[in-house]
Design a protein that fits this description.
The chain has one helix at 2-48. With 49 residues, it is mainly alpha-helical.
Length: 49
């Protein structure tokens, strides 16, 4: 009986862990894209000037 009462808790914890992993991954991707755009913009400015 104890195992069946823990299953919903484990399912919720697993879902929270997956969601956190997704949010962190999206944040890292977002920061990487911003850095790439900034580097590209800086190199374009150097070329123009």
């Amino acid at each position: 009986m104890e195992i069946s009462t823990r299953m919903p808790l484990l399912s919720i914890l697993f879902l929270v862990a997956v969601l956190l992993l997704g949010v962190i991954s999206i944040g890292i991707l977002y920061l990487s894209v911003l850095e790439w755009r900034d580097r590209r913009r800086a190199s374009d400015d150097k070329r123009i000037n």
